[in-house]
Amino acid sequence: MSSRPSFKYREFNIPNHGLCRVIQDKNEKIGFEEVANTQNAYYVSRDYFTSNLNDDVITAAPAANDEVILTNRIKRHVEKRKHTLNILEELVINGHKATSEITYELLKQQLLKLYGETETIWAHSTVCEWWREYKKTKNIAKSVGQDPVVRKRISERQEELIFKHLETVFLTKDTFSDSVSEAHSSYSKDEYFENSDEEPVSYSTFIRRRNEILDVIKVFATGSDAEKRRKAYRYKGKMKVERVLERVEQDASPYNLSLLDDNGKTTEGVQLFAAVDCKSNYPMGVYVKFGKGESSEDYQRLFREIITGTCPTLNANGIPYCIVGDNSGGARATNTREVYHNSKVKYHTLSPHTPWGKGHIEGLFNIWEKNFFRNFSHVYTDTKGNKVQVTGIPGYLPDSEDYRVHKTQKDRAVMKKSEFLRCLNIYLSQYINTTQPELGGRTPQQVWNEGIAEQNPPKLTVNDLNYAFMLSSTSVDRTLYETGTVYFDNAFYQHEELKDLHNELSTKGHKEIIVNVYHSRWDVRTIKVVGQNPTGQGTVVIYPERITHLEMDSEIPFGTDKPVKVEKPYFPPTETDAPLDKKKKEKKNKAEETKEEDFQKRKVEAFDLDNQIVPSLSAMIQASNAIFNTSVPVNSTANFFMKRRNKRKEHNIENDLQSKLFDEHENPPTESDLNKWGYDEDIKT
């Protein structure tokens, strides 16, 4: 079964519409637009279109490649192919097979013989593909194929605008979503059309361009390496950046580097957060974190570097039009997105595992890893104060090497943090003043200065964008006083509008006025106070300034002022609190002293068990009989001794004593010995 012909990109003369170009041929529908006015586009069924074409109602225009337009791309390909194809054609005429290995070897010999070693020898598969395309047309220029730029119905500049506004929505699944319509609306209102005769493209064309980008993503996910290279080259050509600050790419890169802090402790790696301008390749912000992980605070610090340029060696700063980054947790955090929203900056999140979407920052990290961490020649001061000449950063271990055969982080740490930052600033100064081929032999500093001089953007300071960092998560409730002051962060903030707000709310019966206070963690010289509108509709936003004894020329971080320690004054006691003439204690007389001494003595004797004499058993029994008038034998046979825990055989007292005496003495004791030891008569017998 033969496949049906495709009418896509072909031109036809259609009644009532003139010369039209087919822009869609699928799903049994033919979509075409007028060449003279691309805003007029129509859909017809394929059966209707083919029937009218067969009846000569619709006539076909000459094919676009009947007359080859020698664009720059076609000229380049002709120069590459002409020597190879001309020699190969002669070999085929002489009877050689075009695709055989023998013919390919003869081709290489002829190329080296005629053009020398400077001639490029292309691969066998490439030569076969070129010959297959050449056989169809018998023209090298036609075999290259139609240049994609030729069949564009709009200018290249407008094509760039389309892709610039599509960049924030090209991953959206729903083609008719609000985000796509908003992108088309912003594209239609671009300042380019105010000074140009061109008109914006239609909404359908805008969606079609978006689908082309989705095809690029699909190829990168499932296509071959050759398809990926072709798509990437075409996509990169369309995504041109014409102005500085138009597109800024940011990312974080960890490095296995061990450093020492001021206390001599080893750091757990180093992480660089950087942002680069895609027009000039200028690193707008660099933030060094000694540790691991990416947080919202880290990306907020990086954004402050972008808009302020506080790095001593980098002087490029400003508010970018769009920031492109990955889907890391710190960049996607609510606080980070709120900062971008407050600054009117568009943030575009790339799809996971698509580093080619931010090739500028990825390439910058590769350059730094090679030229700075490995091959940067410099002199640094070690921990002993000696000057050491080294190549590369001491303590850095590339990820490609095996960790098990090298020193640990503690053994590798020989450079201090301060020395590392000093070397990094020296390298950054060299980088921005080094010429780059992709910049036309100019340096990033030169391209940046030319762009700034042409665009003349407003010069901003961190004070101008301090409100962007006053996040909703920092909201606290505070009392508004009648003097127009608010107490926050151990200091008072005052504004005349706050005083007027208090007076207006007080006249309406508000006894205690509570307002919401927002602050920036980096600078609390100014805060954001949101109060109730006296009209009852909406809120009022006021920015009071801090009343403090600190210098207001520099930033005041949150928590700088400590609460004032209030010391209570000491007042000596008065006669009312404690009488000054106190009654003296009277001495006790001798009778009372003697009585107290006897009491203490009896108390000690009562608890002195060693001095207590236990009466004998017979005397106790006799005393008991006298009280209760009972007759009990005086000599009792009851055993009052506690039983041993180990079940030994019980012995009488005489055997135990005699065995003890014989064990302790070699000879049996005499009667004099027993008297000397104080034994009773019963024991002697």
From TrEMBL:
SUPFAM superfamilies, per the entry: Ribonuclease H-like
Residue span of region Disordered: 563-597, 648-685
Gene3D superfamilies the record matches: Ribonuclease H-like superfamily/Ribonuclease H
An annotated GO BP: DNA integration
Domain (Integrase catalytic): residue spans on this chain: 250-452
InterPro entries: Integrase_cat-core, RNaseH-like_sf, RNaseH_sf
Biased composition (Basic and acidic residues): 579-597
GO MF terms held by the record: nucleic acid binding
Name of the molecule in the record: Integrase catalytic domain-containing protein
Species the sequence originates in: Colwellia psychrerythraea (strain 34H / ATCC BAA-681)
Taxon lineage: Bacteria, Pseudomonadati, Pseudomonadota, Gammaproteobacteria, Alteromonadales
